[in-house]
Amino acid sequence: MIFCRSSQSPDLTLTLDQLWHHETNIKKIQVIQNSAVRFILKLKYNTPSNIIHQDTLNKLTLLAVSNRLFELSERYVRAGLSHSVPLVVRLMEEYKEEYI
Prior knowledge:
- The chain is 70% helix and 6% strand.
- The protein has helices spanning 16-41, 49-60, 65-82, 86-99; strands at 2-4, 13-15.
């Protein structure tokens, strides 16, 4: 993804405002997941989130929301590169030009 400050950016870019909303939504989803895990594992409400995340991974084999999204994005890029999906190939070329 490309991050920019302009609101008149191409379709594949995220403005800083969109990125903030995206992160806020991830946090909301994580809160829902934490509540569900507390209920399923019968944990107290004041159980620290690091304990919840550890129990979620160990007992339910679920990742935290941000970790799962990262895993899915890696899988998408790998599949796109292995099947030569033009969009993924172009994004990787742009990334290499910019950062490598």
